[in-house]
Amino acid sequence: MQTEILIAGFGGQGVLFAGQILAYAAMDAGREVTWIPSYGPEMRGGTANCTVIISDEEIGSPLVLNPTAVIALNLPSLEKYEPMVKPGGVLIVNASLVNRGPRRLDIDNVFIPVNEIAERLGNRRLLNMVAVGALLAKLPVLTLDQIKQALEDHLPERHKKFMQANLLALQEGADFALQAQGVKVE
Amino acid sequence: MDTTLSAQIVYQRPQSLTEATMHYCPGCTHGIAHRLIAEVMDEMGIRERSIGVAPVGCSVFAYNYFDCDFVEAAHGRAPAMATGIKRLLPDRIVFTYQGDGDLASIGMGEIVHAAGRGENISVFFINNAIYGMTSGQMAPTTLPGQKTTSSPRGRDVETMGYPLRMAELLANLDGAGYVVRRSLHDPKNIRMAKKAIRLAFETQLRGLGFSMVELLSTCSTNWGLSPLESLKWLEEHMIPYYPIGDFKVADALKEIKL
Amino acid sequence: MAKELLKGNIAMAEAAIRAGLEGYFGYPITPQTELLEWMSERMPALGRAFLQAESEVAAINMLYGAACTGARVMTSSSSPGISLMMEGLSYIAGTEVPVVIIDVVRGGPGLGNIAPSQGDYNQIVHGGGHGDYHPIVLAPASVQEAIDLVVLAFDLAEKYRTIVFVMADGNIGQMMEPAELPPMRPIKSEYPHWAVRGAMGRERRILSSIYIDPKDEEVTNYRLMQVWNQIQANEVRYREYFLEDADTVVIGFGTAGRIALSAVRAARAEGIKVGLLRPITLSPFPAPQIENLIQRVKGFLVVEMNAGQMLDDVLKVVKGRVPVEFYGRMGGMVPFPDEILAEIQRMSREDIPLDGDPRQRWMKRLAPVIHWQN
Q: Which residues sit opposite B50 in a β-bridge?
């Protein structure tokens, strides 16, 4: 059983760290995991993405054409990766930065205003954790508790003061996703 | 009548030289440079902890003549190789022995950066204004107008550029502790050269940074002159372009009296 | 020691340090720069030598000098930097001093790009530098394997007094995976009988790649070839997946090998009897293992991130006895498992000809994929 998660957005949205925290949680849970970023000049251009693969056996390709789930934190990421999500998969979209609705009927769409939720929690930089919370509500590859433990264990020391806020952000994201009604497909 | 001879040794092979017969041409000053370095190694008692780096050029076989550990570098790369050795073995005395093609042409990058880093190595630079081993082509230090097999009508600075004054160039770098030019064309200058070699090693021993002694040398074979004419040609043509002098002497060295 | 989530470049650097690395010399180049940066922090802290050279040319020659002291030393670079090191490599091979070099391969030729590639296979495995010499080349496919192979690289380099490459790519370098680092080995206290460290109380030693008399140089070449024979006999390494009943075998190394694994699994799920041979040593090449497979398989599919550099080595072993197909992506493009799966499916449906050139057939199939227009 293998789950592939692609997270994409602007540089500064915490794309890479969101993927890393999933990878840490998977490792701590004894699963096989790979985390691979896009790297190089395109990072400087403002877009970033990473792919996390969680599996019960030796992982083959670290990149897949059709991931199980995509988190798209901006419009270019939505345009690029929405068509790639595996049928039956999950698409989490930052509704704060996109001006359109979903286009796929065969996947589970969650349009969530992560910027606003993060701002309401007092720190815009929490938006990645809001998105991860939403993802795990729809894709039970890891539990929220496992992510919380991974944050406890692997959040850099200088960021430990944001621990509680991170946990709250995860929970808010999850709650939103669970309560969200099916969004209308364009 | 007293017939006993009281023998007194006035001249012998320095311990730091092997018994190998040198392959250098008659009239070549490489042999003098080798001997001076070996004498200084003897006097300082550093032979057993010295590691030499030989170049590519006429002195490619320098390792056959020095009785100390030696490695042979790729053309121009002796300062890089010496850097690798010195960084692994900081308490050894590491020196390169390089000609003008090796140091000032193909190895320009390596020598400039070794000096710039203040690499604690000593460089003995033989400048004879010509490529010896490949039989007489133009060197970066070939004088304006000087005929070589690759500048048959004389070095035309309009198309072939100007000679490089390496001692002056490297002395400008903050990493250089001791950079001087000496000549091997007569006994007085040879004595001065030996003192400079001593100071270069002293620079390294004291951790004062990069040291280089440029030694103006002859190449009778490729200059097409007799050994005696060569010494004269060096004095009359090279010294005016490459003045003998001290271009960088770290303050701490100035107290040393030899 | 517990597993940590480690980035490939940093894992390789730390593995080298723990293997007793005494000196590192390198020049920044993407996508391996984190490796150099890690060294710049860790090596001086441990009192060991780190130097950022002025060029790859200088770096390889610093490495050459450092290797002459008998210490464990290494450099790392990426493709264009490795090209610049070829001169030094030949000298190192000719002097018979051990070094380890990590090449995090990127797209080329020329400046190319910084994306993952396997385009350095030929320049590393089949020479590059002048003269006859054969480095050992190890190709990791995961962060853990990269760690293990870096440690092995030092042991092999010293055992055979040879150059050992670890040939990774941008994926291996940039990827994070859970992996376990080896315990810290102490720096060696005894140095080999040939090491140049100052002639204290002993005869002087000379390390050189000059044998001015061709007779001596020929003997040296013969010795190098004899060592190479031993290496070929003893050091072939590879991994097998689903080979027991496979009638088609995919051959791929490093990142291409692990991508092929995904494709092989997917094909197995469809009932196709396909397996994977993943060479870990590209040099020595697992030719005997391929030879054994020829007796019982219907065909091979070679997968690479280049235009078929290892393909030629496979063809040399197969000698037209069974069909060979090739699938490659070039210039920093990385294949998806789906592309390789499609090739496996096609091979299970179609009769693949024994004659003809697999590279020409592949170019025809690739043309529409890359939107090639004449």
A: B93
Identify whether the C-beta of residue B73 lies closer than 8 Å to the C-beta of residue B54: yes
Give the separation between CA C300 and CA C277, rounded to whole angstroms: 10
- b/e B16-40 (16+ beta carbons within 10 angstroms → b): bbbeeebebbebbbbbbbbbbbbbb
Chain A contact set for C261 (CB, 8 A): 58, 60-61
**Number of folded domains in chain A?**
1
Nearest CB to C178: which of A27, A37, A41? Answer: A27
Looking at residue B66, what DSSP letter applies? B
pLDDT digits (tens, 9 = 90+) for B11-61: 899 999 999 999 999 999 999 999 999 999 999 999 999 999 999 999 999
One of 3.40.50.970, 3.20.20.30, 2.60.40.650, 3.40.630.10 is the CATH number of B30-253, namely: 3.40.50.970
Q: Is B71 on the interface with C (CB under 8 A)?
A: yes
Nearest by CB to residue C61, choosing from B51, B69, B77, is B77
Residues spanned by the domain of C302: 238-369
**ipTM, interface predicted TM-score of the complex:** 0.94
Task: Determine how β-strand C299-304 pairs with β-strand C163-169.
Answer: unpaired
Q: How many domains does chain C have?
A: 2
pTM, two decimals, is: 0.95
For residue B246, the model assigns a pLDDT of 98
Which is it for strands B69-72 and B93-99: parallel, antiparallel or unpaired? unpaired
Dmax of chain C from CA atoms? 73
